[in-house]
Amino acid sequence: MYISATSGDNMAIKFNNKSLDALKPREKDYYVREGKGFSIRIFPSAIKTWYFIYTVDRRKRFMALGNYPEVSIDDARERYGDAWKLLKNGIDPATQAKHAKDERHKAPTIEYLATDYLERHAKKKKKSWKEDERILNKDVLPTWGKSKAVDIKRRDVIRLLEKLSERKAPIMANRLYALLKKMFNFAIEEGMLESSPVSTIKRPNKETPKDRALSNDEIVTLWNNL
């Protein structure tokens, strides 16, 4: 496989906010490069899009990296750097990105994961599955329901738990934490996810044990053990 980074235009500049703002639209779109395929495309509409321009098997490829200024120079450089590393290892970054996008499209939503967790795990193994269902419907699905499970990050979990704690519901925040941990672990076991965003998060609030009356079943268990 023949691979190389290429330029998109004879015009080359050092990218910074001043030099990018000076690039004005023309009648036709054009490319400006910085070097080794790191380029930006200016459209007649004044939209400016970052590109990695490279060659694979003597065919020029154009990989879009996002629009400026929504994607900053630093973020664009990072995306370019990641793509360049793949290229150096003999991997077509555009093909890799398309594959990742296709896999993400097939990934389950939180709504699907919650339903699957309830039907295939909670209802079969937990007497308290209705409480899981209530928590999911009240505190999880309204916020995350349509999101892809793979897109939920550690910070998203922390924010959701903080919302409950701020509502002066610290015990419910702990219950939600335990439920999310079980649900994401279930997703890993079923091959839906590779990792859990809850794995490195600690229980958000301390609980003080309280005296309570034993249920009839618990009394029988205690009596038999004695």
Helix and strand topology:
Layout: E1 3-5, H1 17-21, E2 30-35, E3 38-42, E4 48-56, E5 59-68, H2 73-88, H3 93-106, H4 110-125, H5 129-144, H6 154-166, H7 170-189, H8 216-225
Antiparallel strand pairs: 1-4, 2-3, 3-4, 4-5
Characterize this entry briefly.
The protein is built from eight helices and five strands; from the N terminus they run E-H-E-E-E-E-H-H-H-H-H-H-H. It has about 230 residues and is an alpha+beta fold.
Q: Could you explain how this protein is built, in words?
A:
- With 226 residues, this protein is of the alpha+beta class.
- It has 2 domains: 3-105, Integrase, DNA-binding domain (Double Stranded RNA Binding Domain, 2-Layer Sandwich), CATH 3.30.160; 110-207, Tyrosine recombinase, N-terminal domain (DNA polymerase, domain 1).
- 49% of the residues lie in helices and 15% in strands.
- The protein has 8 helices and 5 strands.
- Strands 1, 2, 3, 4 and 5 form a 5-stranded antiparallel beta sheet that branches.
- Strand 3 (38-42) and strand 4 form a beta hairpin.
- Helix 4 runs antiparallel to helix 5 and helix 6 (154-166) packs antiparallel against helix 7.
- The longest helix has 20 residues, at 170-189.
